[in-house]
Design a protein that fits this description.
Strand order of the largest sheet: 5-4-1-8-9-10-11-12-13-14
Number of strands: 14
Helix content: 25-40%
Shape: globular
Bound molecules: adenosine-5'-triphosphate, magnesium ion
Largest sheet: 10 strands, mixed
Radius of gyration: 19 Å
Length: about 300
């Protein structure tokens, strides 16, 4: 069993325009879709599609459209009631491929609601080997919140994966309670090292050096995703790079979330680290070949096109 936490979920609404967007005018859209979004929700979707036990935990009150969208997907989830509606993030998609995104700030989670979320997480994860903490924090939550949650999960012997950015990432890594697994992309690793993201993407030695520093701090697995350049895994037992044969990306939305799902599926099935990394990259490259935020199922994977080398 794997539990994912999405503390700041969103409903991702896309409206498709057949003509260019015209400011200050009324326009009709040709299609409109809403999907249950948020990184932990995406991770749970891919794990569920692989037939493994998973629960997505998130704050959403009874009757919230977010819950309806999750019900429609038949995704196992547990929603903690909160006194506000889940925010909607709007994507305006034009016929020429231009997209404009307008994200709502979301409501602040009160300290009492944040505590209810942690209580629910601790209750839901009793049978879980892994807990994945994914995405941004709600407005007003202290940047050290993930560190506190990790401390409480690790006290209970849980392995914790963290995929976040900005202050919640830098504060957690500087703090006392470290995750078992960190999944930065090149921008997020750059936030930790102070290098430019492009410098890291072009220099695997720097990626490995940054990974080793994090492993020396006590993080067991550092899984760095590098967009089209695949991913690097650094552990105390070795370091590897995996790449998929070139693909034509359709949508990179959620590619990192799918990569994390693939790695968790591999390590929780006791695969070797190199095999789990290959599965992670197979998931990432399958995700970019699928439209929108669609996540892969095992039939989408082309594992034979992934090469892994020890660094
Ligand atoms: N342009 C691309 N071409 C091929 N594969 C890609 C491309 N972009 C991403 N991928 C695949 O997806 C994985 C994750 O990509 P990336 O490093 O962009 O994650 P991310 O920035 O965390 O994504 P997310 O938006 O989900 O947070 C990569 O390791 C790779 O396997
Ligand atoms: Mg990411």
């Amino acid at each position: 069993m794997i539990v994912t936490l999405t503390a700041n979920p969103s409903i991702d609404r896309t409206v498709q325009l057949d003509a260019p967007l015209r400011r200050a005018e009324v326009q009709r859209c040709s299609a409109a879709t809403s999907v249950a979004g948020g990184k932990g929700v995406n991770v749970a979707r891919a794990i569920h599609a692989a037939g493994r036990d998973v629960i997505a935990l998130l704050p959403a009150r009874e009757g919230d459209p977010m819950r309806t969208l999750l019900d429609e997907r038949a995704l196992p989830y547990h929603a903690v009631p909160v006194p506000f509606a889940v925010r909607t993030n709007l994507t305006i998609a034009e016929a020429d491929g231009t997209t404009t995104k307008i994200n709502e700030p979301g409501h602040a989670l009160s300290p009492a609601d944040a505590e209810s979320l942690v209580d629910a997480l601790l209750a839901q994860c009793q049978d879980a080997a892994w807990v994945a903490l994914c995405g941004s924090l709600p407005q007003g939550a202290p940047a050290g919140w993930y560190g506190e949650v990790i401390g409480r999960l690790r006290e209970r012997g849980k392995r914790v994966a963290l995929d976040t950015s900005g202050a919640p990432l830098t504060e957690t890594v500087a703090g006392d309670h470290l995750p078992s697994l960190l999944k930065p992309n090149s921008d997020e690793l750059a936030e930790l090292t102070g290098e430019a993201p492009e410098t890291l993407e072009d220099n695997l030695d720097l990626v490995v050096a940054a990974g080793r520093t994090l492993v020396a701090r006590g993080i067991e697995y550092v899984l760095v995703t590098l967009g089209s350049k695949g991913a690097v895994l650094v552990t105390a037992d070795g370091q590897w790079q995996a790449e998929h044969a070139p693909v034509s990306p359709v949508s990179t939305v959620g590619a990192g979330d799918s990569t994390l799902s693939g790695f968790l599926l591999g390590v929780s099935a006791n695969q070797s680290l190199a095999d789990a990394l290959a599965l992670a990259v197979a998931y990432g490259s399958a995700a970019v070949r699928l439209p929108g935020s669609q996540v892969p199922n095992p039939e989408h994977l082309t594992l034979e096109a992934v090469t892994v080398r020890s660094l």
